[in-house]
Amino acid sequence: MPWSRGDVLFAALLIAIGCLVWSIGWYRVSGRTTMTEQVAPFDLAVVGVGLVGAAQARWFIGGRRAVAARRRVLLGSDAVRTLAVPGPAAQRDEVFSGSQRFFHRPECPMVFERAWPPAPRSAHERAGRVPCGVCAP
Fold first, then answer.
1. Is the dihedral angle over the CA atoms 101, 125, 104, 86 positive or is it negative?
2. What pLDDT digit, counting tens, does each position of 103-114 carry?
């Protein structure tokens, strides 16, 4: 589970407090007739909504961090960088697929199911294309 019991309790408590503060502000605004009397209770309601939003943001960010940490444990810390490391096949003058701006290795996920014409690397460079950042040809 990406969140600890403490994270769940803290988020639930902050959301409950935010809802309580919001409802108090809403109730107090509803009983006022002039705008000057409504400003302070409205501000209180805005603070309540802010507390709920802060709790949700903290919950979301904590979950993303936990998932990223779990991914590093399962895949290793260099899992993302392995896509950009050129293999020994990149040393040869291979035939690459090219879009308008980039050229790619044939196995690159960015050219999957594309009908781009293959050409040597030198032809792509002469055409002004740059290497793909994903497959790093």
1. negative
2. 777 777 777 677
